Amino acid sequence: MDFLVLFLFYLALVLIGVVTICICSKTHYLRGLVRGGAQVISHIIPERLQRAMRKVLHYLFHTRNHTFIMLHLLLQGLVYAEYTWEVFGYCQELGFSLHYLLLPYLLLVINLVFFTLSCVSNPGTITKANEFLLLQVYEFDEVMFPKNMKCFTCSVRKPARSKHCRVCNRCVHRFDHHCVWVNNCIGAWNARYFLIYLLTLTASAATMAIVSTVFLVQLVVVSDLYLETYVDDLGHLQVIDIVFLIQYLFLTLPRIVFMLGFVVMLSFLLGGYLCFTLYLAATNQTTNEWYRGDRAWCHHCPHVARPPSAEPQVYRNIHSHGLWSNLGEIFLPAAAHCAEKMN
To answer: According to its record, what is known about the domains (predicted)?
Structure first.
């Protein structure tokens, strides 16, 4: 029972941590917590080690590199190797339908295609050549995206909903976020690839979790394990319960149970992020706009001149035009329609 309690505690801790970060990410609480934690750590960890850690973190999260791509492929390869090596063979012996067993491989092929497209495709880089075209795509709201703003790094005028990515060192049209897992920005021109990549990754994790769970349940039923008894620490005869079964399966098939725990946790995390991404797509928002959207900008934006008595303006989403129109904008970027009109 000790293992099961520790595993459930770890799983709950991870999920609570992710939810807490999502809730606090739009407030100053998280920043204050991070600063406080950094100050405490600075008094414990030697200065030389702190510098080394800062260099590593800067390389991982503030420069373009392939570390997370390799980690992604390594984890995916290990999970599929375990699924192929043990789960697939055992399920065939138990008479599982081949269509269900092959579904994770089909999802893997689709996922790798859109993972590659997310990595290598142009997210919507703003250049002198397409600057005028992209300026016509979205309306300026004069709150979050004022007119006549210029990026002095790229020497281009900034279209509405664009942002300069410091990691990639370029301005991106309809900037969503920079994703370290694909080593690329997510913008207007590759958001559809990223959405399908995330959808198939979540589906493949959930499918393997379901297949592995059904296999373990079937194994327990076929072997009549649930009818067995055992002697507890006090010498009493006890009927096998779910906790004992899980511990027994972990000791008997440790790699399968560990893989199952990993893909279940991954399914919850990816599923939550997928729902958030679908919400943004359905409401025609980007992650950048959602993160900054609840703030009042009149007092903080030096580019908007207003009387001292003016009430602060709060950002409102002016780009949402209904569910199907919003989803159509993801899969058929608005710049493509503008290009057709200008031809």
So the answer is: The DHHC domain is required for palmitoyltransferase activity.
The CA distance from 235 to 138, in Å, is 74
DSSP-assigned letter for residue 190 = T
Q: Distance between CA 49 and CA 278 in Å, rounded?
A: 41
Tokens 């580019």 sit at which residue?
Answer: 303
Diameter over CA atoms, the chain: 85
How many residues belong to the chain?
A: 343
**Token code pair at residue 292:** 């900054």
Q: How many angstroms separate the Cα of 172 from the Cα of each of 24, 160, 165, 297, 341?
A: 26, 11, 7, 22, 22
pLDDT tens digits, 134-180: 999 999 988 899 998 999 999 999 999 999 999 999 999 999 999 99
pTM over 0.70: yes
Catalytic residues: 179
Which uninterrupted H or E stretch holds 231?
A: strand 229-231
Which residues are within 8 A (CB) of 178 and not within 5 positions of it... i.e. 6 or more apart? 165, 167, 168, 184, 185, 186
- pLDDT tens column, 182-204: 999 999 999 999 999 999 999 99
Q: Are 137 and 173 in contact (CB under 8 A)?
A: yes
